[in-house]
Amino acid sequence: MLAEELINSTTPVLRPYDSVGQAVDLMDEYGLRQLALVEEEEYKGLLSEDTLLSLPDDEKQLSDLNLPPNPVHATSFQHIFEVMGIANHYQLDTVPVLDEDNLYAGTILVSDMISKFANLLGVQEKGAVVVLKMANRDYSLTEISRLVESNSTKIISSFFSGAEYGALDEATLTLKLNRTEVSAVVATLERFGYTVENVFGNAPVENPDRHRLDLLLRYLET
Q1: pLDDT tens-digit profile of 24-70?
Q2: Where in the sequence is the domain holding 52, given as residue range(s)?
Q3: Is 85 helix (H, G, I), strand (E, B) or coil?
Q4: Does residue 191 fall inside a structural domain?
């Protein structure tokens, strides 16, 4: 999903002829802490509510402020992962987007983006979440997928967080699966040496004897 697909067409912009007070009122009306300053189609920068509230004269026009520009933005063809990184780094709730001609294309609301991102990760899908701890060198999604699928289970989405330098055994892999009963998956992963740190949304096994038999049969097949 690209930045241009995330633009919220109802998000207003600030114009150079707006006063400080008008800009603050507009942010309050839309519940936003930043808005893009745009002159015709040219993006001038991102103005924050905190900056405007610190000014003594709320009747002064934005064009007369001589504030240092805040040029933070995304481009139309950046992926949602990159845009999320920009929003997180600068602690934004809006991200202006520029097109291929470097002109203002619109604004992304971070709240919208989080919702879209959640859908990409499959959080709305029914299924358990399994969190694995491992060394960076042991990460192989192909191998882990094979083990998961050997239990008639699919990985809906996965997220790998690599260990920082010097913490070689602290990488984390989070798996969203398409089943709520994943005891067999957990047992298989542990049997092959993976550390299962947490399991969320795992439904209880209705027939424990049958479950143990299934585990034994799978073990004998390996």
Answers
A1: 999 999 999 999 999 999 999 999 999 999 998 989 999 998 877 78
A2: 3-118
A3: helix
A4: yes
Same domain, 138 and 37: no
CA pair distance 113, 11, nearest whole angstrom: 14
Tokens of 82: 């990159």
Strands 34-39 and 42-48: antiparallel
Say what the pTM is: 0.70
CB atoms within 10 A of CB 176: 20
> What is the spatial distance between Cα 50 and Cα 24, in angstroms, rounded to a whole number?
9
The answer to whether residue 123 sits within a structural domain is no
Gap between the Cα atoms of 24 and 110, Å rounded: 19
Last residue of a domain, one of 118, 153, 172: 118
The total domain count for the chain is: 2
Could you tell me if 159 and 65 lie in one domain? no
Same domain, residue pair 162 and 191: yes
Distance separating alpha carbons of residues 42 and 3, to the nearest angstrom: 18
**112-164: pLDDT as tens digits:** 998 887 777 666 778 899 999 988 888 899 999 999 999 999 999 898 887 66
Alpha carbon distances (Å) from 179 to 57, 107, 130, 144, 176: 59, 37, 11, 16, 9
78 occurs within a structural domain: yes
